[in-house]
Design goal:
Length: 356
């Protein structure tokens, strides 16, 4: 089986982890500080603040922007549940806007109509490693005085018009084991705003600036030095990993002919967290997935049930229609594109997909 994802652990990761183990400093310490410094440099932001995972990064970022009960935050229904849950953790209301069929990202032309007097932020999700149309989103946010919290959990290193994901507004990243770079578990908040950065640091550490002096309610969202050590080594590999993902995606795009393949618009630099095809025309997606899996090609469905159709959320969102999202959720199949996919693997994937 060619797996849909496969984390890479090399000698640098092992060496840095052993450094931490030998130091005895296992909790948040110098390795976290190093990862934060290098991550901020990669993003081109003034601050990067490490957290326990991408969900806590989103939650802390929202809280740092003052999102509170009864506020509204506009986001996408086609995403992992954490994007919406982080809004709910603040007591705020997620407002869902449909997506573009060609990018799978929130449709910026539908955002303005969803703004009300209660809207306080936009939370765009850079799905699969493809940055949203941030020119339009940032223009809307400026005109309506809204915060922008970028869910860049799948988009480390991705760019829009030369600017890195997570540097437009306040960014939130995941370093989960299957992400383009990882630390096993981990997250990161990026920002150029000193006040937001200070708030995130307080929120992640029980509201403490000085030990045992609590200025506000906070959480235990600290990253450990053990995880940061892995993250540092992975960050050093980001350019190589991204190049390999792009090379793999380019090959698949050039040789797959049986289904709709993903395209990248001018000005966008995709990092291919997922390579996602579409099985259109009412074709049986389940049968296609079974055929590929039986042949030895790992697949993923990201995501089979839109947020507004999840059982827990039906009452919350009511009987709303988001037709593009609903169609995409029935058509998408993600294929292996990670750096450990070989040329032989690529040829096999193409052969099997073209048999669908």
């Amino acid at each position: 089986m060619i797996p849909i994802s496969k984390p890479f652990i090399g000698e640098e990761e092992k060496h840095l982890v052993m450094e931490v183990l030998n130091s005895g400093m296992l909790a948040q310490g110098p390795k976290v500080a190093q990862l934060e410094e290098e991550f901020a440099e990669m993003c081109g932001t003034k601050h990067a603040i490490a957290t326990t995972n991408g969900t806590s990064a989103l939650h802390a970022a929202l809280l740092a922007h003052g999102i509170k009960p009864d506020d509204e935050v506009i986001t996408t229904p086609f995403t992992f549940i954490a994007s919406v849950n982080s809004i709910l953790f603040c007591g705020a209301k997620p407002v869902l806007v449909d997506i573009e069929p060609d990018t799978f990202n929130i449709d910026p032309n539908l955002i303005e109509a969803a703004i009300t007097s209660k809207t306080k932020a936009i939370l765009p999700v850079h799905l699969y490693g493809y940055v949203c149309d941030m020119d339009t989103i940032m223009d809307i946010a400026r005109r309506h005085n809204l915060a922008v919290i970028e869910d860049a959990c799948q988009a480390v290193g991705a760019k829009f018009k030369g600017k890195v994901a997570g540097s437009f507004g306040t960014g939130a990243f995941s370093l989960y084991a299957t992400k383009n770079i990882m630390s096993g578990e981990g997250g990161m908040v990026t920002t150029n705003d000193d006040i937001v950065a200070d708030q995130v640091r307080l929120i992640r550490n029980h509201g403490m600036r000085v030990r045992y002096y609590h200025e506000q309610i906070g959480y235990n969202y600290r990253m450990t030095d053990l995880l940061a050590a892995i993250g540092i080594a992975q960050l050093h590999r980001l350019d190589d990993f991204t190049l390999k993902r792009r090379t793999n995606a380019d090959y698949l795009n050039k040789h797959i002919t049986s289904v709709v393949t993903p395209k990248v618009k001018p000005g966008y630099e995709h990092v291919w967290h997922q390579y996602t095809i579409r099985l259109t025309g009412g074709r049986d997606r389940d049968a296609a997935v079974k055929q590929l899996n039986d042949a030895g090609v790992g697949t993923g469905i990201f995501y089979p049930i839109p947020i507004h159709q999840q059982s827990y959320f039906r009452a919350m969102f009511g009987d709303i229609s988001l037709p593009v999202t609903e169609r995409m959720s029935k058509e998408v199949i993600s294929l292996p594109v990670h750096p450990q996919v070989s040329q032989e693997d690529l040829e096999f994937i193409v052969h099997q997909v073209n048999k669908l």
